[in-house]
Design goal:
By secondary structure, the chain is α/β, with parallel strands linked by helices. The protein folds into 2 domains: 154 residues, Medium-chain alcohol dehydrogenases, catalytic domain (Quinone Oxidoreductase, Chain A, domain 1); 129 residues, NAD(P)-binding Rossmann-like Domain (Rossmann fold, 3-Layer(aba) Sandwich), CATH 3.40.50. 25% of the residues lie in helices and 28% in strands. It has 9 helices and 16 strands. Strands 3, 5, 6, 7, 8, 15 and 16 form a 7-stranded mixed β-sheet that branches. The chain has a 6-stranded parallel β-sheet with strand order 11-10-9-12-13-14.
Length: 319
């Protein structure tokens, strides 16, 4: 059984396909035959060693968080049957999904939304859950709020824009001019080209979601209305501090630390099946080209998600 593994930190060239042991389902776990994986900026941080300071992080590491596939073995306490098509993600800090077969708890998985291909389903979990938790739980978006999404055409942004609209917000999307049509199709009410307009000049923003990382708290603060909230995906030391204070109600700047909850995956499934949410895939690569996917991510110019195909597309799979 092959795995996407790094034995040292460094450039994308350290990524290799390496043989490993077959997993076994225990307790509430299932073994999933992985058909597709999705890449996230977090995978780049792991590969570069930016998270090696965290407790329990040791080389070698199996990469990737997001997956879609088929249950091939179920533990005695599992509530997903063999043969079920599922999607979800590894909540572990450094990932672990990048293998032909993986074992993980059922609470990190949900049945795949109908009408989606494996690639489309794999593109959803981490990015969409990040958006949901940032907008709903940290920014507490309410109908009529003026929401700004900075980095609206990237992997997280393409979910943040429609989720903010679902929550009833007026959405301003910040991204390049070439992606203006895309973010409008996703539901944005306004588009700001950061090359032509300084986002720091925006005003009366109720909720500012900095996905891209170019608008830290000190730059975004003047844009906020009285009582306006800020959230970022970027784990800088200062954002950890402010995020901790925000949880105590002493600050307006939050750091989103996404958690895996099946009920949230089921909410995403409902929106996907109703057409209110849709995956956006920049490109699909064979998983042996994972290094190329990392290089593309590092350009910070991808539209939506990069997906790795592990198993060939099967007859009957949604296009």
């Amino acid at each position: 059984m092959k795995r996407l593994l790094i034995a040292e930190y460094g450039s994308p060239d350290v990524i290799g396909l390496v043989e490993g042991p077959q997993p076994t389902a225990r307790g509430d776990e299932v073994v999933v035959e992985v058909h597709a994986l999705a890449l996230n900026p977090k995978d780049v941080l792991v590969r570069k060693g930016k998270l090696k300071w965290a407790p329990g992080v040791r080389l070698p590491l199996v990469l990737c968080h997001d997956l879609a596939g088929v249950v091939v073995q179920a533990g005695p306490m599992a509530d997903l049957a063999v043969g079920t098509q599922v999607y979800g993600w590894f909540e572990a800090l450094t990932g672990g999904a990048g293998a032909e077969r993986v074992a993980l708890s059922c609470r990190h998985l949900a049945p795949m939304p109908s009408g989606l291909s494996m690639a489309e389903a794999a593109s959803v979990p981490l990015a969409a859950l990040t958006s949901l938790m940032a907008l709903r739980d940290h920014l507490r978006v309410q109908p009529g709020d003026r929401v700004v999404v900075n980095g609206a055409s990237g992997g997280v942004g393409v979910f943040a824009v429609p989720i903010a609209k679902i929550l009833g917000a007026h959405v301003t999307a910040i991204c390049s001019a070439r992606n203006a049509d895309l973010v409008r199709e996703l539901g944005a009410d306004e588009h700001v080209d950061y090359a032509a307009t300084d986002p720091a000049t925006l005003r009366d923003v109720d909720a500012f979601f900095d996905v891209f990382g170019s608008m830290p708290w000190r730059k975004a603060r003047p844009t906020l209305s009285r009582g306006g909230r800020y959230c970022t995906t970027i784990p800088r030391p200062d954002t950890f501090l402010r995020g901790g204070l925000a949880r105590l109600g002493w600050h307006r700047a939050h750091l989103v630390l996404v958690r895996s909850r099946r009920e949230d995956l089921q909410q995403l499934t409902a929106w996907l099946e109703s057409g209110r949410l849709r995956p956006v895939i920049d490109r699909e690569l064979p998983w042996q080209d994972c290094a190329e996917g990392h290089r593309l991510l590092e350009t910070k110019r991808t539209r939506g998600k990069i997906v790795l195909r592990v198993q060939p597309e099967v007859d009957g799979e949604a296009p």
